[in-house]
Q: What sequence folds into this?
């Protein structure tokens, strides 16, 4: 992925698994994928910090595996 992606127009959604106490807060932008076929993911406590990007198809497979319970809880 290019480090030059402009994420200023990305609309962020907080994961439903993020807790509300300032702990594990993950945000992602599915709207960004509509024009870039890429899903950016960030820590909502640090919105100007680093962002990971994933191919939209790979992110979809990952979320589907989570829903099916394929990853053990840690």
A:
């Amino acid at each position: 992925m290019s480090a030059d992606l402009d994420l200023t127009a990305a609309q962020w959604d907080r994961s439903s698994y993020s807790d509300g106490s300032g702990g594990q807060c993950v945000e992602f932008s599915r709207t960004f994928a509509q024009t870039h076929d890429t899903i950016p993911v960030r820590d909502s406590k640090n919105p100007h910090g680093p962002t990971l990007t994933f191919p939209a198809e790979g992110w979809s497979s990952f979320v589907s595996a989570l829903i099916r319970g394929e990853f053990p809880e840690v």
